[in-house]
Amino acid sequence: MNSLQANGISIGYDDRGPADGLPVVLVHGHPFNRSMWDLQADALTRAGHRVITADLRGYGTSEVVPGTVPLSAFAQDTAAVMDRLGVRRAVIGGLSMGGQITMEFHRLFPERVRALILADTSPAAETQEGKAFRNAMADRLLAEGLDGYADEVIDKMVAPYNVTGVPEVARHVLAMMRATSPQGAAAALRGRAERPDYRASLAAAQVPALVVVGADDTYTPVAEARALHALLPDATLAILEGAAHMPNLERPADFNAAVLEFLGRVAR
Predict the structure, then answer these.
(1) How far apart are the first and last CA of the chain?
(2) Are 52 and 15 in contact (CB under 8 A)?
(3) Could you give the CA distance from residue 63 to residue 203 in angstroms, rounded to a whole number?
(4) What does the alpha-carbon distance between residue 56 and residue 188 come to, in Å, rounded to a whole number?
(5) What pairs with residue 211 in β-bridges?
(6) What is the enclosing helix (H) or strand (E) of 2?
(7) Which residues fall within 8 angstroms of residue 67, CB to CB, at 6 or more apart?
(8) What phi and psi values does residue 87 have, to the nearest 5 degrees?
(9) Given this model, what pLDDT does residue 71 score?
(10) What number of CA atoms fall less than 13 Å from residue 17's CA on the CB side?
(11) Residues of the chain with pLDDT under 50
(12) Looking at CB atoms within 10 Å, which of 14, 101, 117, 197 has the fewest?
């Protein structure tokens, strides 16, 4: 298990692939950990890329920081991990909350972004109703833990037909959710509720982007992905059939193919 000290906390991470490969930093979603990217790391490193994944503070093997953790803190941690690993500029990608952290990273550190991968995510600021929901959910997770929540949302994270048809994927997703610290998850929910609107910074992006979405995602539907794709000046859209909110796990071959094709263009 690898860990490093960054911004005053311990962060668990993996750094795989050739040191001189195109660096790709993948940011996991909520309430998961870096193992959600293992299938992507395997495929990308076989293609010669360097893949860096880290557990966000409060998740996986990283240190738990209770209270409120804004997306800017996660983005700054990501930059600090890159610094510690000697990576100045990289392709930055994320799914769901990880995608929003990727957008925040781009807002704060545009010069460090070689390209963007935005999967099943939304650039808009949270609504008032959304803020209330996330803060109420934070209270609930602190009181109850994540077991009940995990059972309630599994067939939204993973399409119902994949819960039964690809049970090993559902088991992995459930295990990640159930293992997450309630304090870490609650702190992220409170910070995510206060996120800014990223549409202006994305519209001004000067790097290529890949937008990916599961065709049956109900959290961030295809229409939102199309709007995000239209917003970005240089973007490719991949709609993956047979998947909901986690196409990287539900349809890994299709997800990896879309990412590898995009990286081939970026690396030229």
Answers:
(1) 33
(2) yes
(3) 34
(4) 9
(5) 118, 237
(6) strand 2-6
(7) 187, 190
(8) -110, 115
(9) 98
(10) 22
(11) none
(12) 197
